[in-house]
Amino acid sequence: MLAHRFNIENPSQMATVLTDVYVNVRKQGNQTVLATCDCEICGKTLRDGKIVFEVREEFYKGMKVTMEEAIELVKQSTIVNMVGKCIVRQAVNAGLVHPEAILKIKGIPHAQIVRI
């Protein structure tokens, strides 16, 4: 079953799994840097008090991939920058991001992973 494959207990979360996201992969020396975001927020600016966070297309918008493909890239990357309700939720569900490590900007979650 698809819900089991993605470690989903609540069936309403299936929409998250079926959502496409943007991924932009870059190699820098020995590092694989991944920027990924939910498609609907790419190109938007999130403002929350003094925080201004630009989800820039030139940084985040690469290939449009399935959530499954994006999570596989997250697992393979050494540095990850992710923003969006769907991609961050799925990274938490996959055990890749701790819920307390998420920063919310105007209600939109942002997380980073750095593997040393």
Describe the structure using short key phrases.
116 residues, alpha+beta, uncharacterized conserved protein from methanopyrus kandleri fold like, 6-stranded mixed β-sheet, 8 strands, disordered N terminus
Report on this structure.
The chain has 116 residues and is of the alpha+beta class. It has one domain: 2-Layer Sandwich (uncharacterized conserved protein from methanopyrus kandleri fold like). The protein contains five helices and eight strands. The strands form two sheets. The protein has a six-stranded mixed sheet with strand order 5-1-2-6-8-7. Strands 3-4 form a two-stranded antiparallel sheet. The protein starts with a helix and ends with a strand. Mean pLDDT is 89; it is low at 1-6 and 12-16.
Give the beta-strand count: 8
The low-confidence parts are 1-6, 12-16
Radius of gyration: 14 Å
The topology string of helices and strands comes to HHEEEEHEHEHEE
Mean pLDDT: 89
Classify the secondary structure makeup into a structural class.
alpha+beta
Order of strands, widest sheet: 5-1-2-6-8-7
Give the total of domains.
Answer: 1
| Strand residues, percent | 35-45%
Largest sheet: 6 strands, mixed
The span between the termini is 34 Å
Oligomer category = single chain
- CATH class annotation: Alpha Beta
The CATH superfamily is known as uncharacterized conserved protein from methanopyrus kandleri domain like
Shape: globular
Task: Kindly identify the CATH topology.
Answer: uncharacterized conserved protein from methanopyrus kandleri fold like
Instruction: Give the CATH architecture.
Output: 2-Layer Sandwich
The number of distinct helices, counting runs of at least 4 residues, comes to 5
Q: Helical proportion?
A: 25-40%
